[in-house]
Every structure is written in C-alpha cells, then in structure tokens.
Predict the structure.
Amino acid sequence: MGKVLSARDLQKAFLAGANQLNAKKDLINELNVFPVPDGDTGTNMTMTILSAAKEVAKIEGGSLKEICKAMSSGSLRGARGNSGVILSQLIRGFTKELLEVKEADSIVLAKAFQRAVETAYKAVMKPKEGTILTVAKGMADKIMELSLTEEEILPLLEKVVAYGDEVLKKTPEMLPVLKEAGVVDSGGAGLMCVLEGALRSLQGEKIELDLEFKEDSGVSALTGERKSRGEISTADIRFGYCTEFMVNGDHPFSDKEVEKLRDYLSGIGDSIVCFSDEDLIKVHVHTNHPGDAFEKGLTLGYLSKMKVDNMRLEHHEVLIEDASRIAAMEKLEEQPKEAGASKESEAAEEKDFGFVAVCSGDGLRDIFLDLGVDQVVSGGQSMNPSTEDLCAAVEKIHAKHVFILPNNKNILLAAQQVKDILEDRSVSVVPSKTIPQGISAMISFQPEGTVEENQEGMEDSLSMVSSGEITYAVRDTSIDGREIHKGDILFLGDQGLLSAEKSISLAMKEGLEKMGEGEILSLYYGEGVTEEEAQALEKEILEYMPNLEVEVHAGGQAVYYYLLSLE
C-alpha cells in the first residue's frame, strides 16, 4: 500500500468493514444490556452500512470520488436509528474530505477522520461522552497526531485502530449506566467492528464478503441495547438551561463569524453545538443565562426557533431514554414495511398538508389513519424504518408540505435526514417520542393554520400528555440500586422506571400513582392482551382512581402489554 490509500484500497476496506459488522451485529446487540432493551444497535448500524456497501460493490474501476459518493449517499438513505444515523454522518464527513483527491496520504486521511467527527457531532443535538462519538473523536485526535510523523498508511491505521479499542474500553468509566451493566458502549463497539474489518483487508487478508443482511435467529429472545445516556442528578447539572435557536442572516455566514459565536458560548455554558448552513446558524448550548446567548445571536441576525428548557426540572427524562425501549418480536418484522395507503390518489389535487406517522400494530395504524395521517410506516424501537423508507412514504403524498411523526426517540435522526434527501419537497419533523405524543400532535393540528403555526402548535402539544409503557424485563439487572428480575412487569413513564412488580395490575397501580395528575387515561392494549383483560384492568383502575376517565383502545402493538397516556 505504501504512503497512499487508493480508490481500490478504500473500496475493499469499506466492503470488508461492512462485512465484519454484518457478521458481528448480534454481538453488538448483546452489548445492550438492560432490562428493557432494544437490541438493535448492531442491527441498525449494519443495515445502514450495508445500504452503502451494496452501492459501493457495484462500482468497477471507479475513482475515489465515485467510491466516496456511493458510501455517503448509500449510508444516508439507509440510515436507521440513532446509531445508524450517527454512523452515516461519520461516513458522510469522512468522504467529503476525499472527494477532490485521487489518492489519500496520511495527512488527507487525518483530515478525513477529523471531518467525520465534526459532521457527526453536528448531527447530534446533545452529544454525550462515552458513546460512539467519543470513540470516533479519540481516533481522529490520534491520527492527526501520528500523521505528522507516520507517512506509511498501514502502520498509521494499525495504531489508530488500536487506540480506538483503548478508548472503547474506557467508555464504562464515562457513563455510569455502562459501568453498572458491565459493558462497553455498543455504538462504539460497532464502529470498531467496521474499522477492524477494514484494517484486516488492508493488511492483505482475503475476506469472503457476505453483504446480505442475515436475520438474528434470536431476535425474539430480546437481547438488548443500553443507550448512551445515564441518569443524572440535579447536583450534576452545572448549567441549568438547554437553550436552542437559529440565527438568520442576509448573507452566508463566514467560518470566523461562527467561530466567534462558538467561542462566546463556550464562556457562558457547555454542550455547545454551533454550525452554519449558508445564511443560517444553528445554536445549542447549556447555560445559566439564555438571554445572554440570545443577545449575542442578535448581533449577527434575527432569531428563530428559540427554545429554552429547564434541565433541572427535566433531568429525570434521561433514565427513560435508557430504559423505556424494547426489541420488537418476530411478528413486527413480518409486517409489511408500510401499512396503510394514501387516502387520496396521487392524481388528486395537491393539498396543503400531508402526514407520515411511524407505529406498529393494526389498531394504532387505524387510529393514526382516522386522525388524518396519509402514510403509516410500520416500525418501532427495534425495527426502525430507514430514512429511505420515510422518504418513500413522503413521496407518495400529494401535498405542499408533509409533517413526519417518528413517535420514537430512536427514529428522530433518521426522520430529520429526509429533508436532506428530498430537497425539492417541503418536509418537517414533529419530534414525537412516543405514540401518545404523536396522537396528541395530530389532534392539535389546525387545517387553516400555516406550516409554522402548525409546527409550533403540534410541538407544544407534546408536553400536554404524559406517556407510559408496560412491558417486562428480559434479564436480571439493577436500576439505580433497585433489583430487577427476569419476567418482572415494568411500568415506564416520562420520569423513568416507575414500577417493577410481579403483575400488570400491581405495576399499573404503582405507576399511575407516580405518573402525576390527569383527568383522562387512554389505554392502548397490545397484541398479547385480550379486550376482556383490558376491560378488567379498566375496572381495577377506576376502583382506586374513581375520578379518572378511562378510554380503552386496541393498539395491537408487539412487546408492550399497554401503551398509555394521561392528560
């Protein structure tokens, strides 16, 4: 190989990396140890990279530019789940640095690693250390250091990959949740699989490629994912206000302007995301003085999309981000990728608004269709639809503007990438993280309103409903010192794990008591629950909460016995 990486080298390495991840995806899924697992980090990352690999494999004798374009576009369209989207952004950033060269030397590769990290960090609103981002950043910093003295590509990459493994081993020390479970970060492990496979190829190892996704024979066993966020306490929150806004200008912002703003923000807070896109600057910062951040932004242009959250009041949401998801069982995977069809033919007159919603279960599908959703994409926590799936749904809708309701935290990033792909369509994402939030958003929609008014109104509605989920633990573990046993019934709410009992009845009672006040409780029972059982539970609830109005609906969702909302 020598001192440069050729187009052929990159092609072989990328395909080998994809092949390695495909072979190891089940092990990556198994790293996600938690009583309420998704078990899908390995699956999502694999489906993302295989989408790109199949495009790359088609190229014969292509240039470095052609290989890079196939890697970037293929991963972007195939991106699934948070881990898959982050991987796609790493690939996208890496390839951008190689588009204008015929071969890549050590300096170019170092810049590509750095650009990959920068692009991925920009895609994540609240980057958390101890994750795939940390592993990627560690390697980017290492290759930048080594490239100054090491010109040979192979020994350079060998040292970088070895250092990446060292960073990965340290992730449990960065995130308490990983340490508690005794595992390293699953996303970081997936990234190292890719790079280790690529390195083996560059070392001359003959690798038999298998780029067809193989279903995990143990999907229904629900081996799970532990996400990258751990529980925090208010005492750990140094800066109390999560502040977001956009600066709009009448000219493309220069790197100097953006850097100056970023430097100012670093003096008043942390967790900073600040980047420009032509005449727009996106800002995210944790600070104790949101007004100061707004004032600084106003010196560059006018502000929009302003948002301030008190994190000391909302810190409890972190636990649910880790604990409230579980893998769908085999039946979910057997469902057609899209359920429901457009209510109007494509030949019909273009309407003002259209809607795409993600959910699983015939009952929930019908509820969303009745509320006015045009396309329902089948999916959930462990079977995340790809960006391309969501694009296909949008393209079937004959409307001036389309709203996407992901209804799951792990689908948000994939949904947000639809706008990057469908540049000729007007699309926005309502960041619904649960089914009840999605339903609430649809109910709040005003046909006579503008796009902006409805976007704001639907987002505001998300906070008007408290969500809950009842499922079961698939393994023994502990949460925050609380012992959880396999088979325990778990009640998960916006505040985290609210109850762990031996029966649905007991879990429901304790969970509702901790859930907060409300007047209307909506119960959506899953595929494993009969109507009679749901009605019996309704009567129980009314015995200890007689002032509550209870509505029971057939949801048909897998895994969760009940989804519920309290308003």
